[in-house]
TrEMBL record, chain A:
This is Molybdopterin oxidoreductase domain-containing protein. GO terms for molecular function: iron-sulfur cluster binding; metal ion binding; oxidoreductase activity. Residues 667-694 have a biased composition (Basic and acidic residues). Keywords: Iron, Iron-sulfur, Metal-binding. Residues 10-25 have a biased composition (Low complexity). InterPro entries: Mopterin_OxRdtase, Prok_molybdopt-oxidoreductase. Residues 139-557 form the Molybdopterin oxidoreductase domain. The keyword Phosphoprotein does not apply. The keyword Metal-binding applies. Residues 1-32, 667-703 are annotated as: Disordered. It comes from Sphaerimonospora thailandensis.
TrEMBL record, chain B:
The lineage of its organism: Bacteria, Bacillati, Actinomycetota, Actinomycetes, Streptosporangiales. This is Molybdopterin oxidoreductase.
Length: 829, 154
């Protein structure tokens, strides 16, 4: 016990820049009165005494990270902001002195982190807060355009005119909408994502828009949609206070965002600690701390999950009433997991059978179970299927929508949720359904434009594929570095006939390949909102001026919209907003009535602290937990997807969805879907008939009072495929000759997961290797190629055409610059 | 007594193998297509398994085999193409091949009802559902790439 207090984060804190987090703050669960209060709707809770309703008992501990020689007294002002390391959504304040950001401090009153910070927030890598403002070394300060093969400095007018001229030229050709594509990163604000989404979907009319979330959070998002109808993590960080068992699925070395892990650890050290299950590799703090640590073989998550579900069902450790009233697909799930007794899974996963049984006992005995799903599930073989099985554990046990019972997802870039919700990451804005004509009509009416509804959107890998084939002629990359993160992107971006626009803070490898480089303002240099991993929306303010001529991404998009003169059906400007606040209001209108309703979340309210969506103007609080009372977003008119085959990613249409939702038979899965097949043979289409009856006013097509049910999605374990199948753009296989990276069997290292995973240094110029493919999430499962030493290059004002690594590596110079991290290289540019 | 059921079983057996080969050929011809990663191979394995499960029935009914009629089988796939339009046409071919399998399962199911072969019906239910999933996947992918391929691609 004492050891853990002395070294709170295990080896982690020692290994990263030597920075340590503050002292441990052990705490126990709230009393039963507080738990009851936490389950009440916001308005009822307001009537309670403060000490009961005031939320979490997790003690406040304000972490302060300042430059050497600076104390809190030296700070002139504190500006609210949000963690830029990961999607945890920690609230912080930027310390400003003499027009510079000199440090960060956790926001004590915030519901997410209670003042704590990731130690990396300040010391961290090149995307840390230290780089805000004028003294961010290596920052782009002027727009660049390519002249005679070299990038040269220019004015905003020249640069933007080039982008607009090329856009117009492409749009004038047949199928012009298909000639422009967008790829964005996880570091824009929600207002910027939404503006980008409207420009892309309504202005240009292109389906080609995606985000780095495709490489990190796509499977989490897909699994939530498949199980619950719409994206959006159901749980709340507050569940960690109330729970009596925590399951950490797929712990990566950092156990997710550090602040979340600290909260878990504090509960474990306090009175009435929760049981802890950790699934993931050896050597992580969670593995050492857990009561049951299951180190499954890579790529076998589904086998483990099926065995756990098998145990829960076989022992009767599930909530029969909840399953009967609020879920669909139980019989089929039973059939699927029947083949996975613990003994068989133990063989597949390479773990002792007793561990699986013990884990199942904890899951089966918990009264309030909180799950944290992390990279080891999201980025691994059968990612979506495995993540769906975590949802199944919670559905079987009725562990959703009440204090202590919830599912959280860790990982992904800091602003991932904003991209996913606004439609910049391939979805339809406002968690709408591409396959639902009514949803497309809603958006067309909101924007007053004609929208084609041939969706879904093109995913990132396919966008780059189209660029390689020459059908996309302009690719606009904002806040992302695909040359380092997407397989083959470097090769594709070098194509002469592809016009590449890069909008970023630094001259990234991708920017070096661009035709136009636009210098962007970073966080702390502009205003906007960020939504964290438990749906908490925070505002991030402007602390300092951006360096040189760098502009907020929002201003760049608005400038483009003006130059392109996008109009609605009545000839009015398509984009009617002009600053972050008005962009946010436009987004509120788009989110109205959807599961992610932001209409009650205003800039004024956000200045007082984070608020969780959904929140309507009439409610005094956000919604802490989704799906209270087993009410899901799976109604066919509400859901975000009609579902996919978990193996191939084939889309089910509306009719199979209705059959699954309202029929007697379970949802049809490819593995064991006899019933619908037989039905199809006999030509029965009862639901279509019933539905059309409803449309003609002859009666409801579903039983009155029948709530929409969550789906228990069954999945068979598949042995990982080992062969790398994508071209590697010069990357070499790993030394042992396997293309699946440095781990066994079809795994799974992410290269884009903010600064938290420490993998970026190992990947150069499109070198990540595809080890598999999640067909539902359209997510390539990547492993980085062996590291090549980055080198410092001197480019002042004139920039080299290709990646600077190429000629140097070829001439052998790279060997002399071994080991210098990316941050230093970029700072010297 | 002669029954043509064996001919149809043979036709389906052969079609499943052809579909498996064609899936692999299409994958090889389009190595950079992300959406084919893993899926083609997986479906090809399923096709092979389905063909194997048919074999006992081919044997069971071949005792009654009559002379194979002419033009019982016609080739639907003659090699993969290149390029984006080539991909769409290849997927189109796969779709036709899978449709051939799908309707064969349906007809064999009818015949199995006729002879009261519950065992064969079980196989048809399982494998027929897989073929239906193959069709769904091909349809999903083709619908996604059709606008770009038919309107925009060079």
């Amino acid at each position: 016990m004492l050891d853990r207090i002395a070294a709170p984060n295990g080896s982690r804190s020692g290994s990263r820049s030597g920075s340590r987090s503050g002292p441990r703050t052990p705490y126990g669960p709230p009393g039963s009165v507080e738990r009851l209060a936490a389950a009440l709707p916001g308005r009822l809770r307001d009537a309670l005494p403060t000490e009961i309703r005031s939320g979490s008992p997790w003690p406040v501990r304000v972490d302060v990270l300042l430059d050497d020689g600076i104390t809190e007294d030296d700070v002139e002002s504190w500006v609210p902001a949000v963690s830029m390391l990961h999607s945890g959504g920690d609230a912080l304040e930027l310390a400003v002195r003499d027009g510079r950001v000199v440090g960060v401090r956790g926001r004590a009153a915030d519901r997410v982190n209670h003042g704590r910070l990731d130690p990396q927030e300040w010391q961290g890598r090149w995307q840390g807060w230290r780089h805000a403002g004028q003294d961010g070394a290596g920052r782009l300060t002027r727009p660049l355009v390519r002249e005679h093969g070299r990038l040269v400095e220019t004015t905003w007018d020249v640069a933007m005119d080039r982008v607009a001229a090329r856009s117009r030229e492409l749009l004038a050709r047949p199928g012009g909408w298909g000639r422009v594509g967008f790829h964005t990163g996880g570091r824009l604000f929600l207002e910027e994502y939404y503006t980008l989404a409207v420009i892309g979907r309504a202005g240009i009319g292109t389906p080609h828009m995606d985000c780095d979330t495709r490489l990190s959070t796509a499977a989490a998002s897909a699994a939530l949609m498949e199980s619950f109808g719409t994206d959006g993590p159901p749980g709340s960080y507050g569940d960690l206070d109330h729970c009596d068992a925590i399951a950490m699925w797929g712990c990566d070395p950092n156990c997710g965002p550090p602040v979340l892990w600290e909260r878990v650890l504090d509960r474990r050290l306090g009175p009435g600690p929760p049981a802890l299950i950790a699934v993931g590799p050896e050597g992580t703090p969670a593995a050492r701390e857990a009561d049951v640590h299951v180190a499954v073989r890579h790529g076998t998550n589904v086998a483990l999950m099926n065995a756990l579900l098998h145990e829960l069902i076989a022992n009767g450790w599930y909530d029969e009433a909840y399953v009967a009233n609020h879920t669909a697909g139980f019989d089929e799930l039973c059939r699927a997991v029947d083949a996975y007794p613990a003994r068989r899974a133990a063989e597949i996963c390479g773990v002792p059978v007793t561990l699986i049984e013990q884990a199942a006992e904890i899951l089966g005995a918990a009264e309030r179970l909180a799950s944290v799903v992390a990279g080891g599930f999201h980025l691994a073989w059968q990612a979506t299927a495995a993540t769906c099985q975590v949802n199944n554990v919670h559905l079987l046990r009725g562990m959703l929508g009440r204090p202590g019972a919830g599912v959280l997802h860790a990982g992904g870039p800091p602003s991932a949720r904003g991209a996913l919700e606004t439609g910049a990451a391939g979805g339809l804005p406002g968690l709408r359904n591409w396959a639902n004509p009514r949803h497309v009509r809603e958006l067309a009416a909101l924007w007053n434009v004609d929208l084609p509804h041939w969706g879904p959107a093109t995913h990132a890998m396919r966008i780059f594929r189209y660029a390689e084939e020459g059908s996309i002629g302009l690719l606009w990359i904002s806040g992302a570095d695909p040359a380092r993160s997407l397989p083959g992107a470097g090769r594709i971006l070098r194509r002469k006939d592809l016009f590449v626009v890069v909008q970023d803070l630094f001259l990234t490898d991708t920017a070096r390949l661009a035709d136009v480089v636009l210098p962007a303002a970073g966080w702390g240099e502009k205003v906007g909102t960020v939504t964290g991993a438990d749906r908490t929306v925070h505002i991030s303010g402007k602390a300092v001026e951006p360096p040189g001529e760098a502009r907020p991404d929002l201003d760049v998009f608005l400038d483009y919209a003006r130059r392109m003169d996008f109009r609605d059906r009545d000839g009015a400007p398509l984009i009617g907003w002009h600053d972050p606040r008005s962009a946010f209001e436009a987004w509120q209108a788009c989110s109205r009535g959807r599961p992610c309703d932001y209409t009650g979340i205003t800039y004024e309210r956000l200045r007082r602290g984070g608020i969780q969506w959904p929140c309507t103007p009439s409610s005094s609080h956000g919604t802490e937990r989704l799906y209270a009372g087993g009410r899901f977003n799976t109604d066919p008119d509400a859901c975000q997807t009609y579902g996919h085959d978990l193996v191939t990613g084939a889309e089910y249409g509306e009719e199979p969805y209705l059959r699954a939702q309202y029929g007697e038979e379970p949802y049809r899965r490819a593995q064991s879907g006899e019933e619908p097949y037989r039905r199809a043979q006999s030509g029965e289409e009862p639901y279509r008939r019933a539905r059309s009856g409803a449309e003609h006013g002859s009666g409801p097509y579903r039983a009155p009072g029948r709530q929409a049910r969550a789906f228990l999605r069954a999945a068979e374990y598949e042995h990982p495929q080992h062969a790398a199948t994508m071209s590697l753009d010069g990357a070499a296989p790993s030394p042992d000759g396997h293309l699946d990276g440095r781990v066994n069997g079809g795994s799974h290292l992410n290269v884009l997961n903010g600064g938290a995973d420490g993998v970026v240094d190992g990947v150069v110029d499109g070198a990540p290797v595809v080890t598999g493919w999640d067909a539902v999430a359209r997510q390539p499962l990547l492993a980085p190629a062996p590291p090549v030493a980055p080198v410092a290059v001197d480019v002042g004002g004139v920039y080299s055409a290709a990646s600077p690594l190429d000629p140097l590596i070829q001439s052998g110079v790279a060997a002399t610059a071994g080991g210098c991290p990316v941050s230093e290289r970029l700072e010297e540019v | 007594m002669s029954m043509h059921l064996a001919h149809y079983l043979g036709l389906l057996h052969r079609s499943q193998h052809e579909l498996a080969d064609a899936l692999r050929a299409v994958r090889r011809a389009h190595p950079d297509e992300p959406d084919l990663t893993g899926v083609c191979e997986r479906l090809a394995v399923q096709c092979g398994n389905n063909a194997r499960r048919l074999e006992p029935f081919v044997r069971r009914y071949s005792a009654h085999l009559s002379e194979e009629p002419e033009r019982m089988h016609s080739a639907l796939f003659s090699g993969a193409r290149r390029g984006s339009l080539g991909l769409l046409r290849d997927l189109h071919d796969l779709y036709l091949l899978a449709t051939q399998c799908e309707i064969s399962w349906t007809l064999i199911a009818q015949a199995a009802e006729g002879v009261g072969d519950e065992e064969l019906l079980d196989v048809v239910r399982h494998c027929g559902a897989e073929t239906a999933a193959h069709l769904l996947w091909l349809r999903t992918l083709m619908r996604q790439i059709a606008p770009q391929t038919l309107i925009v691609a060079p």
